[in-house]
Amino acid sequence: MSFVEFEDVRKVYRTGEVEVRALDGMSFSIERGELAVIVGPSGAGKTTVLNLLGGMDSCTSGTIRLDGRLVSAMDERALTQYRRHDVGFVFQFYNLVQNLTALENVELASQICRDPLPAADVLAQVGLADRRDNFPAQLSGGEQQRVAIARALAKNPKLLLCDEPTGALDYRTGKQILGLLQTTCRNTGHTVVIVTHNLAFTQIADRVIRVREGRAASVKTNLHPADAQTVEW
Ligand SMILES: Nc1ncnc2c1ncn2[C@@H]1O[C@H](COP(=O)(O)OP(=O)(O)OP(=O)(O)O)[C@@H](O)[C@H]1O
Ligand SMILES: [Mg+2]
Predict the structure, then answer these.
(1) CATH number at residue 134
(2) Does 197 contact ligand 1 (Cβ within 6 A)?
(3) Which tens digit of pLDDT belongs to each residue from 170-187?
């Protein structure tokens, strides 16, 4: 059994008379410790995959497993625990609390989970040891995204889910963040899933899942993924 499994997952959104098949038989798997990139055009269903995998929404049919647990069968109560303890999220816009320092933002996340890593250590790990007492407004976009990554990692999650994590950043900073996610995956053994429309990101992935119209059009593994620093786009 793989660490992450999607089996024939369907997600239908109904708004009045209109039905949107966001996922239409999505199947793929990801192994523990891999850096997986989910790539595809706008509207292909990438964010829907992350929302289901992150327990923020439920699928219409099919099965979703993480580490042997059937996420797709969890009730609301179980999903709340799952979101708190098992998954960390990084979004395009960092969503930091503006009146808390970098360190406090990371501590905030640790407070709701069972087995957090020390906030100061995780901030040091993302290269921000000397900026811990700064407020978000005093940090650059890339630094704020580092805080958001530290916040997600401090929960010591089984899975780190990133939706367009470089979307709000310039080229150079985006590359640094991509590098940070790659080294985090390699050095800490976290399983990392990055959703993007940027095909260049596929070069750094252990596993590439291409999605189109709510399905996995192909799943490929890279035996020798490129270093994020060497990738150009
Ligand atoms: N809450 C919702 N209600 C209705 N339709 C939705 C909802 N969320 C997503 N959809 C639709 O489902 C489809 C897939 O959306 P999704 O956000 O997963 O795409 P995406 O691949 O992340 O796109 P993008 O690259 O633009 O972020 C789209 O047609 C979208 O309009
Ligand atoms: Mg999206």
Answers:
(1) 3.40.50.300
(2) yes
(3) 999 999 999 999 999 999
